[in-house]
Specification:
This protein is of the alpha+beta class. The strands form 4 sheets. Strands 1, 2, 3 and 4 form a 4-stranded antiparallel β-sheet that branches. Strands 5-6-7-10 form a 4-stranded antiparallel β-sheet. Helix 3 crosses helix 4, helix 4 packs across helix 7 and helix 7 runs parallel beside helix 12. The longest helix has 13 residues.
């Protein structure tokens, strides 16, 4: 079999096909290499650990034959020579013109339809501009939010498409509501196109001071809401609970990182992020996975899977704007949490002392307290 695919990782056919890693000693984590010409497995240590971030063990057939001084042979006894590896495909990137085109009709955006009234038009317009929020133009996903993932070098790596209910601000669940721009445009998946991903909001790191804190959340919507309510932090999103990984967080190397996983019924989301933070903590200047939500949450909060954005909104509900004559103020528009909010924080703390913990964890400076009023007409 004269092909560079002669040696492959053993396909998964149950626990018996996964083995103890020679490096990290974790059981059922290593896939061994299989010789497709003979159907035989190579020695136990020739394989790859599934724990790519935490362990990274990978001993290839090439390493094995080099160390043993042997060579694989064909069925006729002649030496097997693999074909050269094909050149790597270039990463798939979107054109900036695509980003600009999908920002042309913000009034059709189902996410903006709700949140402009909820947090104020000016603040929503600011975060929508900063995070390059787009709007899907047509078809069953018309009006869906497009969350562009732009890296620190300005490469537009991916665009997540998500359709919301404009009456609730929540993702639609009665229809197909999620996709990616590359799939909608080409019909091909990420692997076929060599699509990579990065943090949502990563492009903002370029102008964010290295010693200033960066807050990491799960969802893109949460990052935008938190950015509007607490702009003293740069808020980025990994996209899902399982995406809090070394690969996704490389852009935060050397920074001070504060992570807020969403609530889960059994606390597993928090546990996973805390464990991962320990594994990849060397990447950062400092990293802390906040347990603030775990300590504040009710059972109902856990069942609902609330996030830090929900808590910031809940805390801000106590402050509303004053309507100008003959106009109606938006209902429960939360005030922006700035370094001028000490008196308001004290009022919140009377109802929920855990707010003080939030101030401490985030390191907020409330020494020159002042409340910024919202204009209900904006």
């Amino acid at each position: 079999m004269n092909t560079h695919h002669r040696f492959i990782l053993e396909p998964y056919k149950g626990p018996s096909t996964r083995h103890t890693c020679p490096q990290c000693r974790k059981p059922k984590e290593v896939a061994r290499y299989l010789d497709t010409a003979t159907g035989e497995l190579l020695p136990d240590h020739v394989g790859k650990c599934n724990r790519a971030d935490a362990c990274g063990y990978h001993f290839t057939p090439r390493d094995h034959f080099r160390d043993t001084g042997t060579h694989p042979t064909e069925a006729d006894g002649n030496a097997w020579e693999p074909k050269p590896e094909p050149p790597p495909r270039p990463p798939y990137v979107h054109q900036r013109a695509e980003v600009l085109a999908m920002r042309s009709h913000p009034e059709r955006n189902t996410l903006a339809a709700y949140w402009r009234d909820r947090i104020g038009g000016n603040r929503w317009n600011t975060v929508a501009r900063d995070y390059a929020l787009g709007t899907w133009p047509s078809g069953s996903l018309a009006g869906a939010a497009v969350y562009w993932q732009v890296d620190q070098h300005g490469n537009v790596k991916a665009g997540k498409v998500m359709l919301y209910d404009p009456a609730t601000g929540k993702r639609r669940k009665d229809v197909r509501s999620t996709s990616f721009v590359h799939f909608e445009q080409t019909g091909h998946n990420a692997a076929e196109l060599n699509v990579g991903q990065c943090l949502f909001g990563e492009h903002l790191l370029k102008s964010w001071p290295m010693d200033a804190p960066v807050a990491v959340v799960e969802s893109e919507k949460t990052a935008m809401i938190a950015a509007a309510l607490m702009p003293s932090f740069l808020w980025v999103a990994v996209g899902s609970v399982g995406a809090f990984t070394l690969t996704k967080l490389q852009a935060l190397t050397g920074r001070k990182v504060l992570a807020f996983p969403d609530l889960s019924r059994d606390g597993s989301a928090f546990a996973k992020w805390r464990e991962k933070a320990v594994e990849i903590g060397h990447l950062f200047d400092a990293v802390h996975v906040s347990d603030l939500l775990e300590r504040m949450a009710t059972d109902a909060d856990r069942r609902a899977g609330l996030d830090i954005g929900d808590y910031l909104l809940r805390s801000g509900d106590e402050i509303t704007t004053t309507a100008t004559p003959n106009t109606a103020a938006p209902v429960n528009v939360p005030a922006m949490i700035l370094s001028e909010a000490e008196t308001v924080m004290q009022r919140w703390a009377e109802r929920n002392p855990a707010i003080n913990t939030l101030v401490d964890v985030l390191g907020l400076d409330l020494s020159r307290a002042k409340i910024t009023k919202l204009d209900p007409l904006k």
